[in-house]
Amino acid sequence: MATISDGKLAMRTRVRAHPWLSLLIAGVLVVAVAFIAYSSLDRPSWIHYYRLVDDHTLLLGTESGPGANVRVTNVSETPQAVTITVSSFFFQLGPSTDEGYDYESEAKLVDPLGTRFVIDGSSGLPVKRANCAPPSVFAPVCP
């Protein structure tokens, strides 16, 4: 499109964005929103107990909603303690009950547990050792 101003011919051009650029920007926004949503719904879970499978393997008892993605997200070992963080991602549309579901997650240690303490990474508190498998984890004699 040409216009004349002050006796000179000036050209005005319209710059158009490539159609793929809009799709790329929309895709980046969708990924960013999904990441933010996942990060806000993925929370550390309180560890209720731990059980020894062998010297290097622990089962950690936590609670979350039905169908939650529960997993060990961090294991840190020192000569005195093993600090473990278990996280759970839970999302449900609509109303729900306050009922929790029990989950056990496995943590592998580099060194044997021995006399070290197990610390909950989310609370910083020691975790109690269980004697038995669920549902009677603290029973004096396993059924």
How far is the first residue's CA from the last residue's CA?
A: 88 Å
The low-pLDDT segments are none
Classify the oligomer.
single chain
Characterize the largest beta sheet: strand count, sense, and whether it forms a barrel.
Answer: 4 strands, mixed
Radius of gyration: 27 Å
Quickly count the helices. 1
Q: What fraction strand?
A: 35-45%
The share of residues in helices is 10-25%
Any idea what the shape is?
elongated
Question: What value does the average pLDDT take?
Answer: 84
The helix/strand series, from N terminus to C terminus, equals: EEHEEEEEEE
Task: Say how many strands there are.
Answer: 9
The class by helix and strand makeup works out as alpha+beta
How would you describe this structure to a colleague?
This protein has 143 residues and is α+β, with helices and mostly antiparallel strands. It has a domain of 72 residues. The protein is built from 1 helix and 9 strands. The strands form 3 sheets. Strands 3, 6, 7 and 9 form a 4-stranded mixed β-sheet that branches. A hairpin with a 2-residue loop joins β1 and β2. The termini are far apart.
SSE order and pairing:
Layout lengths: L1 E4 L2 E4 L7 H23 E4 L3 E6 L2 E8 L4 E9 L3 E9 L11 E8 L8 E4 L23
Parallel strand pairs: 7-9
Antiparallel strand pairs: 1-2, 3-7, 4-5, 5-8, 6-7
